[in-house]
Amino acid sequence: MSNSAALPVLAEVIRSGFTEGRHHGSLVLLAADGSVEFALGTPDAPVFPRSCAKPFQAVATLRAGLAIEGELLALAASSHSAETFHRDGVRRILAGAGLDESALRTPADLPLDETEAELHLKSGGERAPIMMDCSGKHAGWLAACVANGWPTEDYLDPAHPVQLLAREALQEATGESVAHAGVDGCGAPLLAVSLTGLARGYRALVLAGEGTPQRRVADAMRAHPEYVAGTRRADTWLMRAVPGALSKMGAEAVQVVALADGRALAFKIDDGAERARGPVLAAALRRLGVQTADDTMARIGASPLLGGGAPVGEVRAAF
Length: 319
Prior knowledge:
The strands form two sheets. Strands 1, 2, 3, 7, 8, 9, 10 and 11 form an eight-stranded antiparallel β-sheet that branches. Strands 4-6-5 form a three-stranded antiparallel β-sheet. It has 13 helices and eleven strands. By secondary structure, it is of the alpha+beta class. It is globular, with a radius of gyration of 19 Å. The chain has helices spanning 3-6, 54-63, 70-76, 84-96, 114-122, 135-148, 161-174, 195-207, 213-223, 225-228, 234-241, 277-287, 296-301; strands spanning 9-15, 18-30, 36-40, 46-47, 180-183, 189-194, 246-250, 254-258, 264-269, 304-307, 310-317.
């Protein structure tokens, strides 16, 4: 039996009334006091948080003395869709440090959002480092380097001062030591912690004292959710619909959410299937008692399967 098969089923793939497949994974829900309210799988085992680590990495830039606020701080913690306002924001962060796009060490890419990628290609656009969804984070790191007189050429080196601050911020917030180190898709250091640690880390962000780096990042993200994700993204929808919610996705179907009162959730779909993220997120939020006055929960949870261009089934949560 594979490790994935040993984990519980978080989502089922139902086509024409037939269970075509299953997505396994782990999940944890925290009560307002930080205790574990519900768990499935192995949420205490280390995972690569991928972009769910970005809020802590943004905390590191503030601790480095970077003077950044509002939508630009949200962009420094983002996995953006490379919409025009995202690209303009990245350029503003870089220009504030006397830099331009050539300083970015993100790989050339297309916009993360499929609609935006199609629009970009139709307009004659090409892959570029600024289009990569992590370019806001990288711009923040570069600006922090300039503010401190640190070298910018090797800002992705795990031993670079800005990366040591990022590691410290992650470990402090999660209450865990890094279990494994790797390299993220954008080339940045990638540090493994548990889902439970991530949920507690996001809880710490929203409950931090006003004016602290942690709270400044959380407040910027919640005030400018479109800069954290994009106009057609679930993180944006959720933070707009649920006052005080802090939501962030990561690659390989990792997701973390913290609510204003300290409730939080984190999960990972073991096979990284993006189609299962929305249904599992909506189900986890409902289990925490989250409701919205509009159709946000339905939008987040919708993952239809098509046959001949028409809906014939869905991916749905299994818990």
